[in-house]
Amino acid sequence: MSQNVTNNPANRDNDEPRAVDVTVPIWLVLVFGLLCYWGQLYLCNHAGGFDKQVYAPYQTVDEVASMNPKSDTDKFMIMGKDVFDKTCTACHQPNGLGKEGIAPPLVGSEWVLAPGPNRIAHVALYGLTGPISVKGKEWNLTMVPWKDTFDDEHIAAVLTYVRNTWGNKASPVKPEQVAAARKEGHSGPETSPELLKLPVQ
After folding, report:
1. Which phi and psi (to 5°) does residue 72 adopt?
2. What DSSP string describes 149-183?
3. Are residues 103 and 140 in the same domain?
């Protein structure tokens, strides 16, 4: 009488392994998906953009910076950045590189980096019209005056910001210097020849 070898328990260990399709439980898939989703949310809210400068309980570099002690110079720069962001970026761009046909660059500008802020203070106060050379390029500009919009402190702050951002390095502008330029008065927008007659101080 013949015997079925494959059904013999003694021979089962000698059977060749076979691949078998097994359905993954749907609950396991859902749990894995929820864990991935939770992990993404956690990292989004607590990783600080993976920036080493961000630490709990803060979420961004700006939050960390806002809570650090600030010197008077820091506060002045923050004020200047606020004025620039709200008023000047549309034309000069957030990076200070200007916009072709609209506004010249502030980065490396000889007008911005002059030893004294007298001329650029006149530009901010009274505006500018006509041709002007900036970094060897001719521009034909019409810039509105800001003397009736901002006080001396805010104009000094934004000029200080412009003179010390994007790699620019120049002396800060004092409200008293802006006040002196305001006191001189001007009937309309400045022109390049008029600005060049002003002392650099």
Report:
1. -60, -35
2. TS-HHHHHHHHHHHHTSTT---PPPPHHHHHHHHH
3. yes
Which range of residues forms the domain containing residue 56? 26-67
pTM: 0.68
Domain count, the chain: 2
Neighbouring residues of 59: CB distance < 8 A, sequence distance ≥ 6: 45, 46, 48
Cα-based angle 89, 107, 131 (whole degrees, multiple of 5) = 80
- For residue 93, the domain's CATH number is 1.10.760.10
Rg (CA), the chain: 33
Q: pLDDT tens for residues 50-77?
A: 666 776 677 676 777 777 777 878 889 9
**Dist CA 81 CA 149 (whole Å):** 16
